[in-house]
Write a structure and sequence with these properties.
This protein has helices at about 10-20, 30-45, 55-60, 65-85, 90-105, 110. The protein has about 120 residues and is mainly alpha-helical. The mean pLDDT is about 95.
Length: about 120
Amino acid sequence: MAPEDWSINDLMVDIRQFMEDRDWSVFHRPTALAISTAIEMGELLELFQWRSDAEIETSLQSEKYLQALSDEIADVLIYILRLADVTGINPTNAILNKMKKNRTKYPAKEWRGRAPNKIM
């Protein structure tokens, strides 16, 4: 199957199988997965730490930087999807429900071009 044809559920099944093949599921308690997600997010943030927007734009032209960024994004997503799987949360439904709440909370007509943290 081509990567663009994979669904979130396909990814979750693949991740679950990877973990089960290694008998790692015993370690995948919700707390451990949430902590691991935060750790991986920290590693993602390190790629941006102390760099200006211009430096980031330049870095995005580097294959090495893009690969590191891709790897860290993947690590975060793997832990998030595993956490969703272990807790029985359907990530597609969670995102759709949250976007519905966001549309109500931040109507486009009122919020276009405005950041939420700048109005309060």
